[in-house]
Amino acid sequence: MEVEWKNRKRKREGKLSVPPLYTAEDAENCLELFEPMEYSELIQIDESITVRFNDAGHMLGSSIIEVWIKENDKTEKIVFTGDLGNNDIPLLASPTMIESADYLVMESTYGNRLHIRNDEKAELFLNIVYDTIRNGGNVVIPSFAVRKNTGNII
């Protein structure tokens, strides 16, 4: 879609179109290269690299990835993670606690915030909705969903 938009713009400018980086067929074909992995399973990539996926608790399937790299008889551990979930979320497991790492690479959008306790969230939400409606405002609740791949590329 992005290259279609770009090519319409290029055409208006009198420029030649550019090919897409990949097609829907390319995307569908790459699914053959994916392999499901279980959380906590040690996966030996080769004699120098081992990985393990752990539950990040952020959304279904999210992972914290531990990577052990052996080089010159020394092994170092790098941990990669994006968003981490909170504890006590009804549909999700709590994030796996990682004991140690030589290097940590993580996303930190909310790194400077303390989350409120889960038992306070419903009351806070209802108060905001009530105050907004009482003051004549509109309540907009953004949401998203992640769906299982049905084999159809959309």
What does it look like?
With about 150 residues, this protein is of the alpha+beta class. The protein has a domain at about 1-35. The protein has 3 helices and 5 strands. A 5-stranded mixed beta sheet has the order 1-2-3-4-5, with no helix packed on it. The radius of gyration is 22 Å and the shape is flat. The mean pLDDT is about 90.
Gist?
The protein is α+β, with helices and mostly antiparallel strands and 154 residues long.
Question: What separation lies between the terminal Cα atoms?
Answer: 11 Å
**Helix count from the secondary structure assignment:** 3
Shape: flat
Number of strands: 5
Stretches with pLDDT under 50, minimum 5 residues: none
Strand order of the largest sheet: 1-2-3-4-5
Topology (SSEs and partners):
Layout: H1 2-12, H2 24-30, E1 42-44, E2 49-55, E3 63-71, E4 74-81, E5 103-106, H3 118-134
